[in-house]
Amino acid sequence: MTFVVTENCIKCKFTDCVDVCPVDCFHEGPNFLVIDPDECIDCTLCEPECPAGAIFAEDEVPEDQEQFIQLNAELSKLWPLITEVQAALPDADDWNGKEDKLDLLER
Ligand code: SF4
Ligand code: F3S
Fold first, then answer.
1. Residue list, ligand 2 pocket, CB within 6 Å
2. Model-level pTM?
3. Which domain CATH number covers 20?
4. For the chain, which residues score pLDDT lower than 50?
């Protein structure tokens, strides 16, 4: 199994998740992070660290966000690895919890 980053990370990108991952499976896009499902060892550490509550175990991803399972798999092969925490995006606190952010995902 893998863990999956879902919609509420978009335009927030707090990156606290990166700090705890023991196997470096996070990849970074302009305004979103994804997990490489081939690297994730299912350790569960990242899930509680995300201030946006955007990380779920694959089998617990909310039904309306299931497309993010495929998005993580796809984008993790295209985007570079991120291994260090960085500042959240500007206005991250304002975007935290906003709905329908998928259209704002930059590739
Ligand atoms: Fe990394 Fe563990 Fe989160 Fe998988 S569950 S992305 S291995 S911290
Ligand atoms: Fe995104 Fe949460 Fe990590 S907002 S960058 S999944 S800490």
1. 5, 9, 12-17, 33, 50, 52, 54-55
2. 0.98
3. 3.30.70.20
4. none
